[in-house]
Amino acid sequence: MEILRPALINVKGRIYRKNAVREEHYEDEEEDDFSYSGPAIDQFMDEPCDTSNIEQTDKGFRCAIDVPSVLYKYIIGKKGETRKRLESETRTSISIPKQGVEGQIVITGAQKAAVVSAVTRVEVLIETFRRKQPFSHFLTFALNHPHIQEGFQRFKDGVLEHCSQDMGVDGSVFQNPAKLHLTIGTMALLNEQEVMRACELLQKFQSFIRDITKGKPLPLEVRGIEYMNDDPSMVDVLYAKVSVQDGSNKLQVIADRLVECFVAAGLMDKEWDRVKLHATVMNTLFRKDPSVEDKGGLGRHTTKDREAFDAKNILEMFGEFYFGSFELDSVRLSQRFSSDCTGYYCSAGQVSFI
């Protein structure tokens, strides 16, 4: 099946097949190395690649690629083997800044086709290993309004009073009320330049948001809870339902368009056709790490990381629980593993609805 349905890598709109040719290890991580499966180097003049950033020099051709420093090691490889192999196979020279120094990877060669080949392979490597990086930022709608926090505390107190005898139900699995939020999408922003790109993109989106909201905050209601598996006695996450009070889909439209915009810019991977608008209120991962962030129910944690709890009584007694209403007035680019003066995530940027 791997032959019939090979893994594909999207690099700036171009699709490449991922070929595992060797396994390498980086700091106890097991990674694959990849090669470009295309025509030989002397045929690369017909490669459908944007070569506008390849410059002609006195000695041949040159291309500089912006690469976050945390990804250098994947281009270098163990004992420099990956870089040596790329240079040998493409007949180019690849210059990489020192580890930890943000800069550009510079590829030079006597033939333009050779430089194109090396650039393509390096970009595939970068895109592949970028996907393996833990997310650092995420777009959020903050739900930590005082009314919602008060409602959440009532919910928590009620559950612990009536359901603490049920399997796995205790205070350690509840969300921090100051961090209640809706996750729109997550990103691995690997240096300050990428954070700035994300902030600038979010600012450009402001006019669209204001067209939807008519320059006013969105009145939201948080009511009811739900789960996402087929057995309420074995769940690991419970979510609060969030809706616009006028019954419109304005919040959904904003979330979906934001994801489309950030995916198109290469800053986010699209996982589903529509954003699932829900807020985590209970998660067994909080038991192990209270600072863990929910990834919209689609986290990178495996099932072996999860513990289950019995939510049957919670759903029966609190299925339509009213957490409260408030007016949402912004979308934020939130920083993972951080807290501001309110207890919510630190904001790298935000756009107001007003």
From TrEMBL:
GO terms for molecular function: RNA binding. GO terms for cellular component: nucleus. Keywords: RNA-binding. The keyword RNA-binding applies. Coiled coil: none annotated. PANTHER family: ACTIVATING SIGNAL COINTEGRATOR 1 COMPLEX SUBUNIT 1. This is K Homology domain-containing protein. The lineage of its organism: Eukaryota, Metazoa, Chordata, Craniata, Vertebrata.
